[in-house]
TrEMBL record:
Localisation per UniProt entry: Membrane
Keywords, in A-Z order: Membrane, Oxidoreductase, Transmembrane, Transmembrane helix
Designated name of the protein: Omega-6 fatty acid desaturase
Family to which the UniProt record says this protein belongs: Belongs to the fatty acid desaturase type 1 family.
Natural source organism: Forsythia ovata
Biological classification of the source: Eukaryota, Viridiplantae, Streptophyta, Embryophyta, Tracheophyta
Keyword Hydrolase part of the UniProt annotation: no
Length: 443
């Protein structure tokens, strides 16, 4: 990725300073005319020190840039947000939401119709998921070996639609009949061997505590103490938050949904029912698949699409709330409106993915109010753009966006939001170095 710097522009590495009049000035008393920008290719060293580097250019010059974590204050003016957007792979990084804006203020601007449940549209989404999944199974059965990856990609994406249907049921936005929602949600999750009620309880807390340190039950940064606790764990974390991160939802699934000790006493009975359903599906469904198709058939028809689903589950979730400029905050500093509007990312994917996944990536309105059905998310997003658009983070899924998340957004830091693994432990961070070398930088 390259950014164009024209005329008398000076680049330096180090924190930006301002004069009493609010103008940016260069460090070490340099007062040349021009614009001071961060030089992204260098980084602060482990101890936080900086090397100052001055480069003057009278002509247009291409400067290769690599995105790094920065203090959120650098996103406080239009010029810096535009530069960060380009470096991170975003279309727009939103302005900071004023402290006096509440979540209710934002919800009140949404049209009432976006909260309305439409049974026809809800069951249409079920039809789309069932037929697209059936088509995927047919393709897997008929495709030659060299086309199987395409068939698995389609089927894994189709079965992600099952998850979104269960997701709507958990948020009580699928049907007016709550028993129907519980039944449909449980059945939709079964092919994914996801226990519906445990996921629902944990996911409700994610919405209540989005981007809150410790309390958020979805993605959150690595703690430095955890990273430094043992060499073996450090290696596992580096691989998990680096090259294996698009499948880390598998670890989240195992850790959060099967341990009864993680649930409140009033939740345990419903959790047990969901776990019984999942184990019954495994005990009956898996042997039937193996009986009919053999162990390779189980891998071919179930495991590979399931891994495809987890790719999307991991990717969608981390893109929704992870970026160098999006902070995680402690409970005493956390602001609900800022976390849900400023801390959530709208990301456009290829249209066939959006259709099969029922617009789950139109995600900002879903965090403003989880009661909005998936088929109304686009109308709600349009309303938010009209009323709150300048505060929203927006992107189109691209290599640079993924590269930023996988190589930058690692260990929690209060001032910079994130510190990359290779800043803290360069010798152990070969997987991150590898990703930086091989991942394209297209936006």
């Amino acid at each position: 990725m390259a950014s164009r710097v024209a005329h008398s522009t000076f680049l330096f590495l180090g924190p930006q300073k301002r004069s009493a009049e609010g103008k940016r000035i260069c460090p070490q008393n340099f007062t040349f005319p021009g614009t001071c920008l961060l030089k992204w290719e260098s980084r602060p060293n482990k101890r936080g020190g900086h090397k100052n580097c001055l480069v003057s250019s009278r002509k247009s010059k291409i400067v290769k840039a690599v995105a790094v974590s920065v203090p959120s204050s650098l996103a406080d003016n239009t010029e810096d947000r535009k530069q960060l957007s380009e470096n991170y792979g975003f279309r727009q990084i939103g302005e900071p939401l004023p402290d006096n804006v509440t979540l209710k203020d934002i919800v009140d601007t949404l049209p009432r119709k976006v909260f309305e449940i439409d049974d026809v549209k809800a069951w249409k989404s079920v039809f789309i998921s069932v037929t697209s999944y059936a088509l995927g199974i047919f393709m897997i059965a008929k495709a030659p070996w060299y086309l199987l990856p395409l068939a698995w990609a389609w089927t894994g994406t189709a079965i992600t639609g099952f998850f979104v249907i269960g997701h709507d049921c958990a948020h009580k936005s699928f049907s007016r009949n709550k028993l129907v929602e519980d039944i449909v949600g449980t059945l939709a999750f079964l092919p994914l061997i996801y226990p519906y009620e445990p996921w629902r309880f944990k996911h409700d807390r994610h919405h209540a505590k989005t981007n809150m340190l410790s309390e958020d039950t979805a993605w959150h940064p690595v703690w430095l103490a955890e990273f430094d606790s043992s060499p073996i764990l450090r290696k596992a974390i580096i691989y998990g938050y680096g090259p294996f991160r698009p499948w880390m939802s598998i670890a989240h699934w195992l850790m959060w949904h099967f341990d009864l000790k993680k649930f409140r006493p009033n939740e345990v009975n419903r959790v047990k029912i969901s776990l019984t359903c999942v184990f019954a599906f495994m005990a009956i469904g898996w042997p039937l698949i193996i009986l009919k198709t053999g162990i390779m058939g189980w891998i071919k028809f179930w495991l590979m699409p399931w891994l495809g689903y987890h790719f999307w589950m991991s990717t969608f979730t981390m893109v929704h709330h992870t970026a160098p400029h999006i902070p995680f905050k402690s409970s005493d500093e956390w602001n609900a409106a800022q976390a849900q509007l400023n801390g959530t990312v709208h990301c456009d994917y290829p249209r066939w993915i959006e259709i099969l996944c029922h617009d789950i990536n139109v995600h900002v309105p879903h965090h403003i109010s989880s009661r909005i059905p998936s088929y109304n998310l686009r109308a709600a997003h349009k309303s938010l753009q009209e009323n709150w658009g300048k505060y929203m983070n927006e992107a189109t899924w691209n290599w640079r966006l993924m590269k930023t998340i996988l190589t930058i957004c690692h260990v929690y830091d209060k001032e910079k939001n994130y510190i990359a693994f290779d800043e803290l432990a360069p010798r152990d961070s070969q997987p991150i170095t590898f990703l930086k070398k091989v991942m394209p930088d297209y936006a």
